[in-house]
């Protein structure tokens, strides 16, 4: 396998699904967006600045030496200079803005391990061949720690490796570290708090769930808590100071994601990928998780991202008119638009009647008078939010009026009501004047609701001095 995920602090926002836990505070969801230029699995992978590089791999027929760069700002893929060596099941690490590619194989069957090391400079778009590894291998794992690159484990078709070689990119030289406790290939590794964690993989013809931690200060390996699921050909990243292990293979492709907390030395379930897959690349950008390529039911070109949903809009209101309903709601922070959904049944199912609205008001026109319509609104950022509160309204021919009530203390209360509502008020007033009914009348306010679900004015009969009605046609 090997795709290298280099975790670098990215100072940018990703595209419509490239901005995972952004400032939105809703829950997170997986979504699919732009595709790789070519279906590819078990490629080498690295991130430098605001670019993502996919190097080599296997397209289901051929081993590749192609290099593709993804610009996360422009949302475009660009083909770059081919690598000198066609290979898959290699791994990478990044030092000083350059990508180092280690080992792998140029064959599909039989797989012959490589000790080749090559360096790619994204600025000059050039490749350089470097001093080879001492041990030829594929399905190894490489990480950068303390300005050195550790190439760990792997296989050669006959044996599983426990050897750890250390590459010094400043001097183009190799040295060795203590061997892993468990020889293995097709595992993954990450660096967290100055330690190297290696987990999963394949050893002695079986899939393993063990994890080991390397301390460079003591040059020793320690066994840590095991994964819940044995797996190889998976992907591991650092996310919110925990280790996430995604997907992989243990006889079948996996969707499950596990999260490791180093403080408690324990694993918990983190949910699932959108599809079961292995041999894919993963990056964390702006605290968002992006996966691309790999192998599911076939070789993949899809790109998925785990992104934050925006909050649902609050305080949706609806006012009916002649063949129309006017909706208003509160703005959602960082939303780039809103969708309006309508149904003739409370609770839906809803039909989307407006998309990507820039404002927080919408007039739904050409409706049938006398029919009650139910509405919800969603916010859009990288993905769509959950529903707002549901509101309903019934369009009609009713004119409207401004009802102005002057209280005995001189305070004026003004309400914009339908004539049906005005007549209901007049009926109450007449009945109350005859000594019938409640001593107060409730009027629901439809504007300036603020953060409340509703606001109700209670008009006390014997506190009123007089009122006036100003009728108008509501179009």
What would you note in describing this structure?
The model is unreliable at 1-25 (pLDDT under 50). The chain folds into three domains: 28-308, Neuraminidase (6 Propeller); 317-393, Immunoglobulins (Immunoglobulin-like); 400-472, no CATH class. The chain has one helix at residues 419-433; strands at 28-33, 44-48, 51-58, 63-71, 76-80, 91-95, 98-102, 117-121, 126-129, 141-145, 148-152, 164-168, 173-177, 188-192, 195-199, 202-203, 206-207, 211-215, 220-224, 235-239, 242-246, 254-261, 266-277, 281-285, 288-292, 303-308, 317-321, 324-328, 337-343, 351-357, 361-364, 373-380, 391-393, 400-407, 412-418, 440-445, 455-460, 464-472. The chain is mainly beta and 475 residues long. A four-stranded antiparallel β-sheet has the order 1-26-25-24, with no helix packed on it. 3% of the residues lie in helices and 46% in strands.
Query: Roughly what is the average pLDDT, rounded to an integer?
Result: 90
**What name goes with the CATH superfamily of the largest domain?**
Kelch-type beta propeller
**What is the CA–CA distance across the termini?**
65 Å
Number of domains as seen in the coordinates: 3
- List the uncertain runs: 1-25
Number of helices: 1
Remind me, CATH topology of the largest domain?
Neuraminidase
Strand order of the largest sheet: 1-26-25-24
CATH class of the largest domain: Mainly Beta
């Amino acid at each position: 396998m090997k795709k290298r995920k280099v975790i670098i602090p990215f100072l940018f926002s990703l595209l419509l699904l490239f901005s995972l836990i952004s400032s939105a505070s809703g829950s997170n969801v997986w979504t699919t967006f732009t595709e790789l230029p070519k279906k590819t699995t078990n490629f080498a992978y690295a991130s430098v600045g605001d670019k993502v590089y996919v190097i080599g791999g296997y397209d289901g027929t051929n081993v590749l030496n192609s290099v593709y760069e993804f610009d996360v700002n422009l949302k475009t893929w660009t083909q770059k200079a081919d690598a000198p060596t066609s290979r898959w099941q290699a791994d990478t690490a990044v030092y000083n803005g350059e990508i180092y590619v280690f080992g792998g194989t140029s064959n599909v069957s039989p797989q012959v391990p490589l000790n080749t090391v090559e360096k790619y400079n994204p600025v000059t778009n050039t490749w350089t061949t470097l001093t080879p590894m001492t041990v030829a291998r594929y399905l190894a794992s490489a990480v950068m720690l303390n300005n050195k690159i550790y190439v760990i484990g792997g296989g050669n078709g006959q044996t599983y490796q426990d050897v750890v070689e250390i590459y010094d990119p400043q001097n183009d030289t190799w040295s060795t570290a203590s061997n892993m406790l468990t020889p293995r290939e097709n595992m993954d590794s990450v660096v967290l708090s100055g330690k190297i964690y290696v987990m999963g993989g394949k050893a002695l013809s079986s899939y393993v769930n063990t994890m080991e931690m390397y301390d460079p200060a003591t040059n020793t390996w320690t066994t840590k808590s095991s994964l819940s699921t044995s797996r190889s050909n998976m992907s591991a990243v650092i996310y919110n100071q925990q280790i996430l292990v995604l997907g992989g293979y243990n006889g079948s492709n996996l969707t499950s994601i596990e999260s490791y907390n180093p403080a408690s030395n324990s694993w918990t379930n983190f949910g699932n990928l959108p599809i079961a897959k292995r041999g894919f690349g993963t990056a964390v950008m702006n605290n968002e998780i992006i996966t691309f390529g790999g192998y599911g039911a076939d070789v993949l070109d899809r790109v998925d991202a785990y992104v934050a949903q925006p909050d649902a809009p609050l305080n949706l209101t609806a006012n009916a008119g002649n063949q129309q309903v006017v909706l208003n709601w509160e703005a959602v922070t960082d939303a780039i638009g809103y969708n309006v959904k309508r149904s003739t049944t409370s609770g839906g199912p809803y039909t989307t009647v407006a998309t990507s609205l820039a404002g927080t008001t919408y007039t739904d026109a050409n409706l049938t008078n006398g029919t009650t319509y139910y509405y919800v609104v969603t916010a859009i950022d990288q993905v769509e939010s959950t529903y707002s509160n549901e509101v309903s309204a019934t369009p009609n021919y009713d004119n409207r009026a401004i009802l102005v009530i002057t209280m005995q203390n001189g305070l004026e209360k003004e309400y914009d009501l339908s004539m049906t509502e005005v007549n209901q008020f007049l009926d109450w007033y007449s009945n109350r004047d005859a000594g019938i009914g409640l001593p107060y009348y409730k009027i629901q306010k439809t504007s300036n609701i603020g953060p409340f679900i509703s606001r109700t004015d209670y008009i006390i009969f014997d506190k009123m001095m007089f009122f006036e009605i100003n009728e108008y046609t509501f179009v």
